[in-house]
Specification:
Blueprint lengths: L29 H15 L3 H17 L3 H19 L7 H12 L1
Helix pairs in contact: 1-2, 1-3, 2-3, 3-4
Length: 106
Amino acid sequence: MAKTITKSTKPAKAAAKKTIRPKSPTPLNIEKLAEEVLEKMEPLGIDAKLQSEIQWCLGSYKNDQNPIGLLEKIAEALPLFKSEQAKKTKGITAKFIGDVEKALAG
């Protein structure tokens, strides 16, 4: 038996044009980044002095929204994370290090 194709008698609706907007880059959430850095450092026992400095700078950032000190301390933590990654420490991934580097560059 042959198949028959039937066309709808209803007029086709014009497809709505979608405007494509370029994605705006997500703003640097320095506060979230600093908390992630601390979450990685604390269980590993990496540089307790630097941890306390990051915590202090995080509190300062919450008060005055000036990220300079916080960014400097996160930058100091980056080489520590790279050395831990070289040791194959669990939890220190290349993605995490890449995210930190990207945040510091932007």
